[in-house]
Design a protein that fits this description.
alpha/beta; 15 strands
Length: 514
């Protein structure tokens, strides 16, 4: 009987088959799943997100609020005699003394952390790194900070770097942040440009990809990253914590790309277009000598290209969908409550879906119908994005609030001056008409009709509606050449107007008689 498996189980089946080389029968014995189920997921090529309310991510360790204090104590121990340093029991005792009931962690949890931290602080193991051999088609990925301006707005951005250590070839994409959607979108852009996917990619342990780190290099991957990895069929490898040398090539590429492509900080009008230009610019960078091998990077890169996996037939959408509840103002918040986005008044205090991409925040109602799309906010400051036009209907019911809302600034000065001449009821009626016309077409068309009415000295809503319909109604234009090919050809009509001359003859005779 065919079963529906969790993403972790799907990931295990694919790794047993593609990485460890087990056949279907061996996988059946090892996992206990039937042949039909195993074949289903081995053949599965589309790992796009199914729109369902997102499950809340796993919380951090209860010890997190106290780690800074623990680290300070252990670092200070470096100056003390070894027999007068903190033991795990002493740290536990001192934390209880310092924080009282606020410290509610078990001794076992604390002891495990102290053991790891002491090894990190007091290890005398020499820092010797073995030179690593890199195979064609293998890549490394990492982010770096890069400031830039888009349409005059400053962003403390991040550049996503992907390098092929075998040839020292690298590509880069620029983003406003470094969340999972930016990571996936940047990699997809590069995959599509190259026409293939690296066979093996080395990452760090970012929480967007890795939710837990265990012993023996075990990594528990986040659900969405597993979907992304399985969709493109690459092998994901993660460095040991604090071991940047394990992906030394990309560490160098992060700085190289910043120095050569982002100094001075770039300024442009459209981020997507700038990213496309970066890919072609980096093609030119291949024609320099490899720092160690007797060949150009371009020559060596051909082996990388040849080893790439084919692109999947089904496109992958790098978007995360979460369920949110709106507040009394019909707004939702993300990014630790710091970024606030509007929906529409009718959705106040209700559940909505929020679709997150690298650039957009798309609000969907319970029927998955799009309500409004915002540009995604970035940074740790409190910010909000309000689409005031969707609140016009609500404002029309309370016209005195108009000047205290963001929609007032969307009107041109002529409209504002006109509003000042209206009494309460006429302002209410005008705003209601503008809202109706906006829903019929768009806000700009409604305002255009209002300005036309003002210029003609009109002061009633009927005039606004008439001028709106005149400008926006489709007028049927008749084409004079619509006759069918088999229509009979008619003779040219030549009217005889000589009959009308008789009237002039009669008139002349009358004059003679007079």
């Amino acid at each position: 009987m065919e079963m529906t498996l969790a993403m972790t189980d799907i990931n295990d089946i694919k790794e047993l088959y593609f990485k460890k080389g087990l056949n279907v029968a061996e996988i059946m014995r090892k996992t206990g799943y039937d042949r039909k189920t195993i074949n289903k997921y081995l053949d599965m090529t589309d790992f796009n997100l199914v729109l369902e309310p997102a499950v809340r991510s796993k919380r951090g360790s209860k010890l997190d609020p106290f780690k800074e204090t623990i680290d300070e104590w252990l670092e200070a121990d470096k100056k003390s005699w070894r027999k007068q340093r903190h033991t795990a029991k002493l740290v536990h005792k001192n934390l209880i003394k310092k924080y009282g009931s606020k410290y509610d962690c078990s001794y076992r949890l604390l002891a495990e952390y102290v053991k790891i931290k002491k090894k990190e602080i007091f290890s005398d193991e020499p820092k010797f790194f073995l030179p690593l051999k890199h195979l064609p088609g293998e890549a490394q990925v990492d982010f770096g900070r890069t400031d830039f301006r888009e349409n005059g707005t400053f962003y403390e951005g991040r550049h996503l770097n992907l390098s092929f250590p075998q040839s020292n070839t690298g590509y880069v994409q620029l983003f406003k942040g470094e969340n999972l959607q930016c990571l996936e979108q940047g990699m997809i852009n590069i995959f599509n440009y190259l026409g293939g996917v690296p066979t093996r990619i080395v990452f760090d342990n970012a929480s967007s990809m890795v939710s837990d780190i265990g012993k023996n290099k075990y990594r528990k991957l986040t659900e969405h990253f597993m979907m992304f990895k399985n969709h493109f069929r690459f092998e994901a490898v993660f460095c040991n914590p604090a071991s940047g040398h394990e992906k030394g090539n990309i560490e160098g590429k992060v700085g190289y790309h910043r120095r050569n492509y982002f100094v001075p900080p770039p300024e442009f009008d459209d981020l997507d277009e700038f990213n496309k230009s970066l890919l072609t610019e980096l093609d030119k960078d291949q024609y320099r000598e490899h720092y160690r091998k007797n060949a150009t990077q371009h020559e060596l890169f051909q082996a990388d290209l040849k080893a790439l996996l084919p692109l999947p037939e089904v496109e992958f959408e790098p978007a995360l969908v979460v369920s949110k509840k709106t507040d009394a103002n019909a707004c939702i918040t993300i990014h630790k409550g710091k970024h606030r986005y509007s929906t529409k008044p009718s959705l106040a205090k209700s559940n909505v879906f929020v679709k997150l991409t690298a650039e957009k925040v798309i609000i969907l109602d319970q029927n998955l119908k799009e309500v409004v799309t915002h540009d995604r906010l970035y940074g740790d400051l409190k910010q909000e994005s309000i689409n005031w036009i969707l609140y016009l209907g609500q404002i029309s019911k309370r016209p005195t609030a108009l000047k205290y809302t963001g929609i007032y600034d969307l009107f041109p000065q002529a409209a504002k001056d006109y509003f000042d001449t209206l009494d309460y009821e006429n302002l209410k009626a005008t705003l209601k008409t503008l809202n109706t016309l906006t829903e019929e077409t768009n806000f700009d068309a409604a305002v255009d009709a209002l300005l036309d009415a003002i210029s003609h000295g009109a002061s009633d809503t009927d005039s606004i509606q008439v001028l709106f319909k005149r400008k926006n109604s489709k007028i049927m234009e008749l084409d004079g050449h619509l006759a069918a090919k088999n229509a009979p050809e008619l003779p040219e009509l030549k009217p005889d107007i000589s009959f009308y001359d008789t009237f002039y003859t009669v008139a002349d005779g009358d004059e003679k008689n007079d």
